[in-house]
User: What shape does this take?
Amino acid sequence: MSLNELLNSIADFPERSREVPSSPPLETVAFFVRWSRGLKNWKVSTLADYAGVSVSTVERVERGEKVSVENLDRIAVALGYETGKLHAPRIPLGADKAAEDLIETYGYLEQVSVVPLKTQKTIRDAAKCAGILVHKHAVPERHDDDIANLAEWIELAGFILSEDIERDGQEPKRRRLYRDIQDHVAEMERQGLTVLVGVMDAPQPRFPDVKVAILAITTKAADPGAVKREHVWVDRRNVSNLSFDVPDMEP
Assistant: This one.
């Protein structure tokens, strides 16, 4: 569903009094859960497993049917929100304010195709990019060094893949580097991480063909379905803040 379709759906929701706190309507909760699950590319069964509820419970929520507060909290936490997100009384925002908040949260998101970072081709595609953006969620700080080292490995691969370096007969060195990166990713996976990679267009005023590599890293415990994920959502504003290593073509 596109952002415009989302905004149109919100506009169709019934108006509620903005003077008295009330729980979100069931149809709003249903829509929010479907949308949030879709952003994660989770099947209903994946959300049910991680939330510790039955598949039928998730299906009932997504149909706008009533379930227990306890199950709503389990689903909210599984999706990365606090308890009470799906049922706690609050003053309604109103359609205009809700649309404004949604645009701020989701209006800059771009869908990027990703695959597991396992093959030489995926490493090579990432290394040819002008920059790297690490996209991670709920990954413990103890993994920060491994993630930073992986980004450095890929940057080094980009240097070795450059035309000038390739002329110097660096094929054996390049293959060793590929193996080192693959071994590093395998070790991260043994530590409970899932490492995906994608390539995102990041046109600049003078360099319209610039691309950036997206490293999407999650824990298997917090995101059990990540290994089967085919795309992630990336905030374009994060990409615009990167410093790109692109050649200066001016004389």
